[in-house]
Amino acid sequence: MTAPLRLGIAGLGTVGVGVVKIVRSHKALLTARTGREIVITAVGARDQGKDRGVNLNGYAWESDPVALARRDDIDVFVELMGGSDGPALEATRAALDTGKDVVTANKAMLALHGQALAEQAEDAGRAIRFEAAVAGGIPVIKALTEGLAGNEITRVMGVMNGTCNYILTRMESAGLPYDAVFQEASDLGYLEADPTLDVGGIDAGHKLALLSAIAFGTRPDFDGVDLEGIQRIAIDDIRQAADMGFRIKLLGVARRTGRGLEQRMQPCLVPADSPLGQLEGGTNMVVVEGDAVEQIVLRGPGAGQGPTASAVMGDICDLARGIRVPTFGRPAHTLEAAPAALSGLPAPYYLRMSLMDKPGALAKIAAILGNSGISIDRMRQYGHSEATAPVLIVTHKTTRAALDEAIAAMTGTDVMASLPVALRIEQV
Amino acid sequence: MTAPLRLGIAGLGTVGVGVVKIVRSHKALLTARTGREIVITAVGARDQGKDRGVNLNGYAWESDPVALARRDDIDVFVELMGGSDGPALEATRAALDTGKDVVTANKAMLALHGQALAEQAEDAGRAIRFEAAVAGGIPVIKALTEGLAGNEITRVMGVMNGTCNYILTRMESAGLPYDAVFQEASDLGYLEADPTLDVGGIDAGHKLALLSAIAFGTRPDFDGVDLEGIQRIAIDDIRQAADMGFRIKLLGVARRTGRGLEQRMQPCLVPADSPLGQLEGGTNMVVVEGDAVEQIVLRGPGAGQGPTASAVMGDICDLARGIRVPTFGRPAHTLEAAPAALSGLPAPYYLRMSLMDKPGALAKIAAILGNSGISIDRMRQYGHSEATAPVLIVTHKTTRAALDEAIAAMTGTDVMASLPVALRIEQV
């Protein structure tokens, strides 16, 4: 039998402890499957004294992640600290520098520094694996990089922030406004320390940037992701969408267009009876479309100790088995720097706005849309008691640029009571 | 760059031609991803003269698959002929014997001879890959063998015969009886030459046997699959199930129990609002449950040129990249010969029967169920004009053995107008 694969684990939060548990409880199973023993040599975290509910006595302790990464008695540096820069990045670099493979769950670090790290890994002849960074327990990185390698990928879509999907589906099922459900999610501990990472779409945007790189052979480009959060979604939007057979999801969409790489992470309307539309609560879903495979849908838990540790262990088992694939599916120096196609292909849009209740208000809005070349599929003005009138418009296919032009013109009138909410209707 | 990977393709039906098309059209993409050129050296099929819509001029032609497999100018033998025995098996053995890796879509061959072939491959230091054999384009073999390798798998379920799912969902949507939709499916060319392979659950049973082997580390055991087809499902069953919030699926379920390996491929009731219950038409779905990952759902096209060729190409790309994993996820000689636990864990059952319209008929049936220790959750007798009365019973949890005992006792009475239809209600 081959020598044991020796792990050094930096970060002992939920996921780190989950990995330790699996390595301890599935010793024989992992050896049977990979042909090697998988052992933990060293671990480290900020606070050594904390009781983590798992026995760490047999492992060397390293408070300094860089020192952990540099130890010569580990083969794989398992980075589970998080944070795009700082210690996680420094330790990852140190690990590659000293000949270790790296397994990480750190989407922010890879979305921002993935290109440089992939190049460093390649120069050093080492691997970086990050299944746990995208969509928790779903083995989507593997499916996209390996299983679907015979396809030209035409579109990747995903609901990849469980907290946002929890908030949106809970608003609908409980009939509660955004603020109330946001508070609930906060009380339940579902939100990141900086909640904008979740509800602003940043966390999901990091994940999308990683999927795009693999799918389209482009450099990970988080700055090129058109980001929009769910903060302005009202219970009214959810109800109106449902009336028309849609549900609202914080949906990531990436595709290559003639004008460059389109990456959007924004609330969209999707058909209620599609797999994406049916997705409830904190579950994640990734949809991959390729020229041969047509459409594959992957669904599973997007977070949590077990699922995320499962993904980390999948990467570790691959390394134990000698499976080595370039970080983003092809050599890092061959990844293209594709321009960002921010506006996206034309699509129908949902528009909700409040108009001042005065004669000719609706006509003004309709005229502005017409002037921007946007034709109206449906329009409704609702009964109301206040001085403002809620109006709902569904457009025919238009570009986001034309829509933004129209919205700018609307705000220049004296009939708008608030900025419109504009949501793309994505064909899925 | 490494030397090209040279393919010999035996079988030029839909899938074989699909593979040729991808190799030809995605030359640069495949090389970029795998770091090697992938080339076709030789092909073969029964009829050389047939126009297959793709240019085969550059490839050597071998009518004899064994001769093709033995050629010393191929690295990978791609077996796309089908058939559990005969030429496919002989050629696969010849390929391994002469140092080739094998990629196959042949579920029947592997379900019946997988153990022997895996051992032969291992002894020869070669690989057998079969992503295309299970659930078409869905990369489920990879997900189960590699992505989820850190899990103890607790249950695998799947709707893996698109024709059966087409028939069942079409019966429901069109309100047509089984025979009419069977004929439709036949006219559309959806059925195998021997349709029992589809509607009798045999094809799906082969696939389940392969998934079980990987999931539970057991020898592929098709004979241990409790097989039941969809031929006796009536439109009434589908309607009654829908009334109670269920849909009927030809569902494969495998799990390890204290008494051995449970493998069932049979029509089951599943909740209508579950991913399995929502599955329409010819689409396939596999659900994998593991102790860490909880539940992963994979959905995609289960057949067709593009999707199946995509799966074959995934395997070929893996071989080009040097990825080698034991056939069933661990060395073949370590796979256990687990006894078959045919009866399965207790579950609620749906029972539909026709009783003779005479006094005390229903009471007799109820008494028989009681005598077998089966308690009744719901029972309905429907209005009727004929001499027989349709009766529907949903039981509380019971074993299949107790139910079979009760059904045998029922048929011994003089009140049964026909054999009952008994369908398990699977918790998903």
From TrEMBL, chains A, B:
Name the GO terms of the biological process aspect: methionine biosynthetic process; threonine biosynthetic process
Q: Where are the transmembrane segments?
A: none
Q: Where is the ACT domain?
A: 350-428
The record, for InterPro entries, names: ACT-like_dom_sf, ACT_dom, Asp/hSer_DH_NAD-bd, HDH, HDH_cat, NAD(P)-bd_dom_sf
Its Enzyme Commission number(s) read 1.1.1.3
Keywords, ordered alphabetically: Amino-acid biosynthesis, Methionine biosynthesis, NADP, Oxidoreductase, Threonine biosynthesis
- Pathway the protein contributes to: Amino-acid biosynthesis; L-threonine biosynthesis; L-threonine from L-aspartate: step 3/5; Amino-acid biosynthesis; L-methionine biosynthesis via de novo pathway; L-homoserine from L-aspartate: step 3/3
Keyword GTP-binding present in the record's keywords: the answer is no
Residues recorded as binding L-homoserine, renumbered to this chain, are: 192
User: Which superkingdom?
Assistant: Bacteria
Query: Which Gene3D superfamilies does this UniProt record tie to the protein?
Result: 3.30.70.260, Dihydrodipicolinate Reductase, domain 2, NAD(P)-binding Rossmann-like Domain
Active site: residue positions = 207
Supply one GO molecular-function term.
NADP binding
Has the keyword Iron-sulfur been applied to this entry?
A: no
Binding-site residues, NADPH: 107
EC category = oxidoreductase
* Family note: Belongs to the homoserine dehydrogenase family.
* Stated name of the protein: Homoserine dehydrogenase
Query: What is the scientific name of the source organism?
Result: Pseudooceanicola lipolyticus
